Amino acid sequence: MSIGNVNNNSLKSLFFPVLMMIVSSFYMPLFLYLSNAEEAYFYDIFKFCLIFFSVTLIIFAGFFIYKRNIVKASFNASIIVFILSNFKIFEYVIKLLPIHLRYWHVLAIVLFIIVHILYIIYKFSSDSTIRSIQLVLTLVLSGLIVFNFILAVPNIIKKVNVVNTEPDNVQNINYSNEKLPNIYYFIFDEFSANDVVQKYYDYDNSAFYNKLEDLGFTVSENSENKSFETITVTANYMNYDYVVTDEDPSNKRLEVRKNNRTKNLMSELGYDINGFSVGNHLDYFGMVNDSNNGNNLSAITVEGSSINDLIIENTVLYPLLSDDKTQLATEINEVFDYFEDKNNFNQNDQTYNFIYLPTPHEPFLFNADGTMTNPKNYYNWEDKQFYLNQYIYVTNKISTMVEKIVEYDPESVIILQSDHSARYMSGIANEDKVHIFNAVYYMGQPLDEIKGKSGVNTLRTIYSKLFNLDLPDLEVVE
User: Fold this and answer.
1) For residue 368, what are the contacts with CB-CB under 8 A and spacing of at least 6?
2) Interatomic CA distance for residues 159 and 141, integer angstroms
3) What is the pTM of this model?
4) What is the DSSP code string of 198-246?
5) Helix or strand or coil: residue 443?
6) Which segments of 409-471 does DSSP mark as H helices, in order?
7) Full set of structural domains in the chain with CATH
8) Beta strands 218-219 and 438-442: pairing type?
9) 297 three-state secondary structure
10) Mind listing the pLDDT tens digit for each residue in 331-355?
């Protein structure tokens, strides 16, 4: 349809050109939202819908100015944005060819295809033909969105029905007015127990365990949980109780972790709460510092990826995200460095320090000596060296860091835990994945009571002894 014909036709003739631009722009963000409906909210993807649609309108304007044809301009704009926003799918299909192709090769092929589609549309296709194709594609994409919405309805209902996730009131606490020790609670994601790295990586980390014991730590070498899902384990850690299982909706587990009993307990005890992590993780644990309200953060999926990242990873721009991990590496190192600096310790304060570090969990950023890994191996589980090198580097950083904490704050309590051992290397048995790293420094005193206990029961033992609470061991929930 040319511009001269617009006033002579019903507005109905514009319906499918406009609808196709909307559907092609919204399809990928909506698909990812509906696929992660338990964790995500529509506002997480709304900005991407607007960005993609704005790009579509800009491209449409360019083609319309060029040929003054609304039908072809809308079709071309829709096709270009759909392909580039779903680039990873097209890349996957092209890489099925029996030749080795890099990103730039695939990009050149995709652009070549787009140019020829545009040429065919303008050279050989009539408006009526384009309208027919437009109708079919719009109905197919709309149908897929509706189908995925129907599948997501149960998860959306679960999310709406999650109520009463606020933790129970902490029991009455009787304690003296004397200053309680500073607490340093570290969670290292996917830091394997020694028996696991020995069995699957042929690496013995006993020297590290021995050093911890020399510093006054009690190390439990046979602690395990019954889950290796991070949000389940950490939700239970933060509530020092088995409040959720893997079968609970993930949004419930996330909410219970965020609105946790630990923060209530420490607040009642008069602790100043300091949170340390990277990215947006502090908000997900409910440990955002007062100076950072944690608003406007993107939701995360069960595997810990933000919805923002998932959307970008599917577009033609994904190399900008996947290859730039320098900032993440810097932030991880900065947390370690903070606790090695004497100037950051004040024994006159009463602080509860919560530290969550998503390492040695993928991406594998560090070689054993701390240099950066090649980006192509950030997620390489098949070659054992990449997880192991990062594991060794993190071990060395923990070793140096806790030595400084013990030196600068010897009357403190230091809790070192992982949520699970290595998970994604092929061949690791589930019963080994649940083994955890579990070590406690209790003001220089032995704490043999934690040996053999799960992460939750270790925390209950510490809090019972330190705060004179009655928190008996719980049966470890499968």
Assistant:
1) 388, 389, 392, 393
2) 26
3) 0.72
4) HHHH----HHHHHHHHHHT-EE-TT-B-S---HHHHHHHHHTTS----T
5) coil
6) 430-433, 455-467
7) 3-161 (no CATH), 183-467 (3.40.720.10)
8) antiparallel
9) coil
10) 999 999 999 999 999 777 899 999 9
